[in-house]
Amino acid sequence: MTNVKFPTDFLWGVSSSAFQIEGASTEDGKGLSTVDTRKVKEGIADTAIASDHYHHWKEDISLLAEMGVKTYRFSISWTRIFPSGEGEVNQKGLQFYDNLIDELLAYNIEPLVTMYHFDLPQNLVDKYQGWLSRETIDCYEKYAEVLFTHYGDRVKNWISINEELMVMYSQDFNGIRNLDEKQYKKAVFQMMYHMSLAEKKAFKLCHELVTDGKIGPANAFQNIYPATSDPLDVEAAMNAEEFLSYMLLDLSVKGKFPENTLRYLQKENLAPETLPEDEEILKNNKPDYICFNYYASLCAEVYTGLADDHMPPFFRSNMYRIVPNQTKSLSEWMVFGIDPVGMRISMRKLYNRYELPLMITENGYADSEELSDTFEINDEKRIGYLQLHLLECSKAIDEGIPLLGYSAWSFLDSLSGREGFSKRYGLVYVNRTDDDTKDLKRYKKKSFYWYQNAIKQNEFIVDEGKKNYDNK
Ligand code: BGP
Predict the structure, then answer these.
(1) How close is the Cα of 163 to the center of ligand 1, in Å?
(2) Which pLDDT tens digit goes with each residue over 91-122?
(3) Which protein family is named in the record (predicted)?
């Protein structure tokens, strides 16, 4: 048994994102974004109602207060503030987040605001080709200015962009569907570069307009091990980590590409177009912390031409081949290998490379769940997952890593990427399924009570040998 303790100022939290919980996708003047217009699989819920947080926000915040979290990470929907992504501000949109923020502060919960979580205004795609054009950078900058000016007196912790890696590759998020395969392959890196420039402008503005504020990116950190000790696999893992994580984070922090990655992009004719004046904005604006989302680790082996089209697009490459971590447990939805130690290893890698404080902004366990007859959800596996990952947080802090906080994904059951409500991560159950919105009532899962108690005590006891989510 291990007693796992945390510093008194540790930011215990939970996370959500606007399009995954809010619903009300066209209400009170909200415009459509790419996640609203994307095609969802037949039988899977869309953004129209989601967890209906837009109409339950007060009740939801009282649940957060009951849970005892110190911080709540949520995202602002760009198209509630600017329905077309540009032009006139929608006062009702501003008001919604005013209410949310004021209510959080009334409960002493620190808001941690993601400015953009996958939901690009559709109008910016139709009019400018989204992140392919510099106009979208200007629109994002204007949006950032409104957020900092309007909420900066109350919101001190900001996240510029959630998971650029997903946005640059996923057509559902970036909205770019009119290019052939070759053009799209190149477009991915142009979109990435423009997002990096946009977030640098947000760092600059945040520091100017919210003088006591802090800001950083939220990276989907891919912790990649060599599949074997063969040096070629070791090199493949280095390539994959550089390509999938350090390329984006080096741009966020250092304002430049890793040399090896840049040369690869140039060689493959994939390097983005840049302007000389970008240099200044990229170099001079640094984040205050690095937020990262971590669910699992991966392995890489040397690329031999073997097909990898069963993998998500961002894992396909001719520099490496991504494979699941077979030394770790896999489950129905956790398909790459659950690896709590890997989260501490990730922190060590990130801190060694960037020497910035860290925040874990997503980490959680996906499962298929149904309410019992007594309206309970006994999510022991999720509790086991959270315990073992938080244990690694505590160890990392003991090893000298400045880890500011941990926000579990997710607060409520929410729309999961492509799987809607068949895959759930919440500490709070939302009573709906993909095809039946039922009464949308909230039920606290067993993990809610476990987390509540851990936060209250600022410590918990774990049996390290008992991994109740798996058998490895
Ligand atoms: C991250 C996203 C979240 C969330 C999570 C789980 O990539 O930032 O928005 O969706 O992953 O992913 P999924 O729901 O697809 O399993």
Answers:
(1) 9
(2) 999 999 999 999 999 999 999 999 999 999 99
(3) Belongs to the glycosyl hydrolase 1 family.
